[in-house]
Specification:
Blueprint: H1 2-13, H2 26-45, H3 47-51, H4 60-85, H5 91-99, H6 116-134, H7 143-171, H8 175-194, H9 206-211, H10 219-237, E1 247-249, E2 254-256, H11 262-272, H12 276-289, H13 291-310, H14 312-316
Antiparallel strand pairs: 1-2
Helix pairs in contact: 2-4, 4-7, 6-7, 6-8, 6-10
GO cellular component, one term: cytosol
Pfam families: PaaA_PaaC (PF05138)
Organism: Sphaerisporangium rufum
């Protein structure tokens, strides 16, 4: 036992990856399952706010882009459920936990999308914040998660650019279009900052996750990085970020920003955001509607296995 633990500690210390076959502390396994499941759920629920706009896209080009983007998010969810399965988690059980409200997904998806500018702002700010969070996870200590994250981050960066390009186009349009963009920025800015989680002094698990190299930076470090990255992009776009205290601090070499309303995050996390009930209801309905597909796939797999067992020569041939 001491041997196994020593091997785990040395692997982490050398910055090497923990793989599914390796021994790992129960706490590490549970933390990874929770984090990966929550991430997978976020990708899947995250299809809803933008998916609502697929049928209302303003052109065929925008529709094709949005369809591809939402489909990417479904793919991210599937890689991540597979990564969770390498830890012994059961995918059906994780889905049950999600639809029964026993596992969380990112609170950002509990806000409504009120217009097409929201699609652009989600790409720019929400996918942008996701990138800040996820790029360091490409070096996360758990191998399957880190490797899934490499591909996911490439697609997320494409998502961010498509959002920004949509906003640039709208900002070159009519006064109404510019007002739609500003309104969407006003609504999504603060929730985007909350995506990095509670402040470091209220985040009791951060130290352990950092020691295990699951996490590489604290919530506040990543939030600061996001603000510093976004301010110049907002200037190019010509929108105002809705924070009168936002300004460059030459001494810190970073932007200062106003206080975040943590009671709002708490409220949304605990189920009382604008769309929590709607998101879960839709996910639950999709799961129930899809039962026949899962049953058919399982029946097909059973038949194929039985056929292979009966006719081994055919398999060999
Ligand atoms: Fe994604
Ligand atoms: Fe994305």
């Amino acid at each position: 036992m001491a041997d196994l633990e020593g091997h785990f500690d040395r692997t982490i210390a050398r910055d090497q990856r923990i793989e599914p076959r390796d021994w790992m502390p129960d706490g590490y396994r549970a933390t990874m399952v929770r984090q990966i499941a929550q991430h997978a759920h976020s990708e899947i629920i995250g299809m809803q706010p933008e998916g609502e706009w697929i049928t209302r896209a303003p052109s065929l080009r925008r529709k094709a882009i949005l369809l591809a983007k939402v489909q990417d998010e479904a793919g991210h969810g599937l890689y991540l459920y597979s990564a969770a399965e390498t830890l012994g988690a059961d995918r059906a059980e994780l889905t049950d936990k999600l639809i029964e409200g026993r596992q969380k997904y990112s609170s950002i998806f509990n806000y409504p999308t009120l217009g097409y500018a929201d699609v652009g702002v989600i790409g720019w700010l929400v996918d942008g914040a996701a990138i800040c969070n996820q790029v360091p996870l490409c070096r996360s200590s758990y191998g399957p998660y880190a490797r899934a994250m490499i591909r996911i981050c490439k697609e997320e960066s494409f998502h961010q650019r498509q959002g920004y390009e949509l906003l640039l186009t709208m900002m070159k349009g009519t006064a109404d279009q510019r007002a739609m963009v500003q309104d969407a920025v006003d609504r999504w800015w603060w929730p985007s900052l909350m995506m990095f989680g509670p402040p470091d002094d209220a985040s009791p698990n951060t130290a352990r996750s950092m020691a295990w190299k699951i996490k590489r930076h604290t919530n506040d470090e990543l939030r600061q990085r996001f603000v510093d990255m976004t301010v110049p992009q907002a200037a190019v776009l010509g929108v105002t970020l809705p924070d009168p205290e936002l300004r460059w601090n030459p001494e810190r070499g970073h932007h200062d920003f106003g206080a975040i309303d943590w009671s709002e995050l708490q409220r949304v996390i605990s189920g009382d955001g604008p769309c929590n009930a709607e998101r879960l209801a839709r996910r639950r309905a999709a799961h129930e509607d899809g039962a026949w597909v899962r049953e058919a796939a399982a029946a097909h797999a059973r038949k194929a296995a039985a056929r292979a067992a009966r006719e081994p020569q055919e398999v060999a041939g």
